């Protein structure tokens, strides 16, 4: 009996240790202040947009606009000259399209695979959502101070904008 009690306590202690390491996220802390900051300066979809940018040296107004632009101009092969794989619907249809489903139309099929590796669910703003918008360059165009100088490639500008840098520091992602 004593053996089973010790085994039970050991398993319980291991489980507690695992739970702490999962909720800690490696030192990343998404405070209410950080969430408010992100909600003020990072947009998945700016519903106030009237028209899409013409993409000629013009910044994106939100992350969804960038994602839609990459799918309609470059497609899954990343080549603007090959249009067989480009998305042809409206931005509203794009926004409603699922990221990935089996056997149907999906966003992942239209996007260059080496730049669009993470999916956000804007209706579920959990800690993972807030971590990804700071951590991954893919989401840089959602920051209000993001600037893109090169619209001949779907790759984002890798320079971290001042607002994104401030957010990265707030959540403990900086080195």
From TrEMBL:
Residues 1-17 form the signal peptide. Keywords: Signal. This is Fibrobacter succinogenes major paralogous domain-containing protein. It comes from candidate division LCP-89 bacterium B3_LCP.
